[in-house]
Design a protein that fits this description.
Blueprint: H1 12-22, E1 32-33, H2 35-41, E2 46-47, H3 59-69, H4 72-76, H5 86-97
Length: about 100
């Protein structure tokens, strides 16, 4: 079954597998505190600036993970992203790094 056809809930094993695929490829973005948001929320709020990620958004993480989960034979057929925004940029970057 491919990633596109799976509908089951995400479990810890899937999260750990995705983290392993991303290790060394996605940037580790910092967690930043925000006194302004802390005051509004009445508690500590941390912000993760994914704009520092490849292509400027978190979409690279999902694209890299999805392409990495494909077999080399499937990846060699190419990939398509139905988007002109951050998703397309993430897929394009991940595909280029995979040599697709």
């Amino acid at each position: 079954m491919t990633l596109a056809t799976r509908a089951e809930a995400c479990d810890i094993g899937m999260i750990e597998a995705a983290a392993a695929r991303l290790a060394g490829h996605a940037r580790r973005t910092p967690m930043l505190s925000s006194p302004f948001l802390d005051e509004i929320a009445g508690r500590r709020v941390l912000v993760k600036p994914e704009c520092l990620q490849h292509t400027g958004s978190f979409k690279f993480r999902g694209a890299w993970s999805a392409l990495s989960a494909l077999t080399p034979e499937v990846r060699a057929r190419g990939v398509i992203a139905y988007s002109s925004g951050n998703h397309a940029q993430g897929v394009a970057r991940a595909a280029a790094l995979h040599g697709v």
